[in-house]
């Protein structure tokens, strides 16, 4: 689930987690009093309570006993109790992305309840294990803990879990990168299927918990996320976007999808037809939900419907079963659905279909079984159990990626035959007898993210290293400053903290602040007085009250702006300052009595910044006193990249970069631990420092996992799940979803990356021999022998890619077709076998709107990363030759072969795609068979003003064959036709439609 997409002013709750007002708490109390669970024996005699009956018979029985009013009420996220049938409240949605996190419910203080339990590595870290079996075990533990919390408080902890996120990581700037798995649909599908299966449990008829995939679909940007249009040409949709969702649904490893905020081809995803897509991938009932606030966006920011009843009807007809909106208050949803029924926009049969879907999952959760089903006896005792702690440590360890380790064979080239001896010694593993300097802003702490639960304990990187090293010295390596103005210093209270004031004449500890640089100019200030972070409290003053930066607007963000005269302005940089309503009052001003407020830059107080202690100087001294240095740098998950905020660059914070470089200059045996949630352009560090480890924010066991890898107890085998570009690599517009046209991701990029998709090193070496690819039924069986040629036991992630030689369309540079993580002792070999079905090699044929396998030769490539291919062969795939286009039959305009500048939009508000274009933009239909000559063209058009379309041959500036004059049709959804004669169109041609003026085209046909 996500917070509502619309802007919130300070007068509203400052966070979606903080619905957080007494009124919200009162609403929950009202639910508790009025909608409480009925006595356990109520309705026990009804057939729907009998688990011996077939599921559909039980559903039919219960559905037939519900009134229309009761059924309508169940379309809201808080499905009220039905006391007369002994049915209790059912609440959708508990966040469980990498452990049970939080609930949409609130406690008596108005605070959203956060779970305290096992926080596993962030989702991108789980995928970096490339180990579906491990991820399934993690999912099972999450399902257990969801049941445990539910057993304690079923009102707060619902068993429908809004996880996993399967949105593809096509753009590394996406603010929610940490939530996804991979830029590749096959890997994403395998990991999401594993997680979902674990959450659900192994019982064929019952669910431990019900995973819901987020966010359907093409949701990989936060900027304008509720109004931006993800324009998906058919190949991108069918070959890239949909497979990521199809995998888990078709494997019955998920029980529904959550619709995303964005528009897909001009139509809000909230009303994109799920019946024509996800429901066709399984015979199981799917319980689909909207994202938070999505129903209201339809008439609000998106202005797609004039009234809420129209919006509600469209959602239900599109296959959305539950409205996530208005917190605990179901009345607006009920009113809009009832109005839609009264207006004839919906029928009771439509409501019944949605409620059937809901019941299909609620029954499988065991809710209506007398004993709660096979998972009904799980208790809170499972939460944070020793077994889950051990699993968490393993997951964090396996997720760790060794990016660089000088002295090993990592630079031996893409065709390395794997004959390395494994005797070369890198900087890692560290010697336990060595003294280690542990340095960096993330060395002493663990951070959680927006979708994390609360850590029940913490093992920091420093803790983990201290357990192993003979001796340690540590420092965070951050500057400690004091701010002075008018002869007085900025002072913070001790204890729990409070308002800062300009008051003290000298800079003692209460006047000092540690400055943490998070990049893009943003810093946080930690008060030395009490160790808490400075925050903009009560939407006005500054106070040292926060344990870590948090909340929706993250009010702990500041910048220190140096003026020409050397003075410093303290600027508040919380996320809400980007909202248009916030205004220019973001600079700190001290009144005559020392109290602080926000004002404009012109009226701000100029401070003198005094450096009490240099972080770099301390770090250098520590590094010089040790045998080796470990520098822990990275991100703070609430800053510079998180929900609602994309990153503007991929750089490591400048202050952190300088820290690493200074430590390395002081001690060449420096290891960098990069702890963040996304690719970073660390080219300079990759050139200079000898060893680099990458991990996500990996939960309470982070320190143990890092120490296991640093000291060689565990041999790293994590692999990157997305491409890390080099500094200076041009990235396309984040709103451009056409990875084929833009050459994005490892699939289509021809750029040399800093670290490739699938990259990751080991402390041992592996050899590959004897690659074979033989025909096997409806595909090919590919096998390769992998041998541990080094002196340490270790895991290798064997990756299979293919590349098609000849094709009608542009093919991926290479595409992942299979992978397996194998464990090998020194000298041990294993034959790894993959099966590639011929159908898996199909492309989406836009000329016939179906998948097609072309007859072609394919490279078969096996290696340890997408750029480290160790063995290769070829296979011949029998298939068809896609015929020339027949434009004498009506062709959808969206099925073009190439284009410039156009956008795919909605033909109607219910279905269909069309092409929207401005003057000078064009679409092309290649290899069109015009026979002995075409004499005319007819276009299906919609336009608000008169325009025209030029028909050209060979190129957008090629020979003009004719011009279609398009009159205004009366609106973008008022479709008509426009025709014109053409001349010179014969034989096989590439046909171009060049637009002169703005209009929409839905189809075209040539006449002879």
UniProtKB/TrEMBL annotation:
Region described as Disordered: spans on this chain: 407-430
Gene3D superfamilies to which the protein is assigned, alphabetical: 2.60.120.380, Galactose-binding domain-like (2.60.120.260), Glycoside hydrolase family 3 C-terminal domain (3.40.50.1700), Glycoside hydrolase, family 3, N-terminal domain (3.20.20.300), Immunoglobulins (2.60.40.10)
InterPro entries in alphabetical order: Actin-crosslinking (IPR008999), BXL (IPR044993), CBM6 (IPR005084), Cellulose-bd_IV (IPR006584), Fn3-like (IPR026891), Galactose-bd-like_sf (IPR008979), GH (IPR017853), Glyco_hydro_3_C (IPR002772)
GO molecular function: alpha-L-arabinofuranosidase activity; beta-glucosidase activity; carbohydrate binding; xylan 1,4-beta-xylosidase activity
One GO-annotated biological process of the protein: arabinan catabolic process
SUPFAM superfamilies (UniProt xref): (Trans)glycosidases, Actin-crosslinking proteins, Beta-D-glucan exohydrolase, C-terminal domain, Galactose-binding domain-like
Family: Belongs to the glycosyl hydrolase 3 family.
Keyword annotations: Glycosidase, Hydrolase, Signal
Protein name stated in the entry: Exo-alpha-(1->6)-L-arabinopyranosidase
Lineage of the organism: Bacteria, Bacillati, Actinomycetota, Actinomycetes, Streptosporangiales
Pfam family, one: Glyco_hydro_3
Signal sequence interval, chain numbering: 1-42
The UniProt record lists the keyword NAD: no
Biological function: Catalyzes the hydrolysis of a non-reducing terminal alpha-L-arabinopyranosidic linkage in ginsenoside Rb2 (alpha-L-arabinopyranosyl-(1->6)-alpha-D-glucopyranosyl) to release alpha-D-glucopyranosyl (Rd). It is not able to hydrolyze alpha-L-arabinofuranosyl-(1->6)-alpha-D-glucopyranosyl (Rc).
Native species: Planomonospora venezuelensis
All copies of domain CBM6, residue ranges: 889-1007
